[in-house]
Amino acid sequence: MSTMAADLKTHEVIPDVIDKVPDSVLDVTYSNNLKVEIGKILTPTQVKDPPSVKWNAEAGVFYTLCMTDPDAPSRKEPKFREWHHWLVGNISGNDIKSGEILSEYIGAGPPKGTGLHRYVFLLYKQSEKLVFDEKHLTNRSGDNRGGFAIRKFAAKYKLGEPISGNVFQAEWDDYVPILYKQLDG
What we know:
Layout: H1 3-10, H2 13-16, E1 24-25, E2 27-30, E3 34-35, E4 40-41, E5 52-54, E6 62-69, E7 83-92, E8 100-103, E9 117-125, H3 150-156, E10 164-170, H4 176-184
Parallel strand pairs: 1-10, 4-10
Antiparallel strand pairs: 2-3, 2-5, 6-7, 6-9, 7-8, 9-10
């Protein structure tokens, strides 16, 4: 078993979010050169802005990128599993800005007292440019983000299994109330 496979199973990303281990670890870096490593604990303050995400993209190929939290409102009681934080489709190569933003980025915002949440990044290779019928979501509201399942989304758009992935963990810090105010906007 590869290290990534073992790590994803240790953090129960498999089976909670996906069924198979992606081929590679997704390169995710937040400001101040803060690299996401599988299972590393980061704070909501550190991940409040969208990260830089890189992968070995094929020319002329489109990709879908997702960041999702399977632990909403808590890992013990994930009744809103999953709460997706970022969803971008039709990314040309690895230029995320070229993609169609289905859900704008919202950083980690685990409720106080709910312990560590997992934030899972997954990358899918599309077979063609897609027409998405999802409601486009801004980062000013949490509406329509809970009850998401990347498995169902991937099946709906025939994305197959993710080709790359990563995960960090975070729990409440004093940035979370600021984020919640933004989402009430």
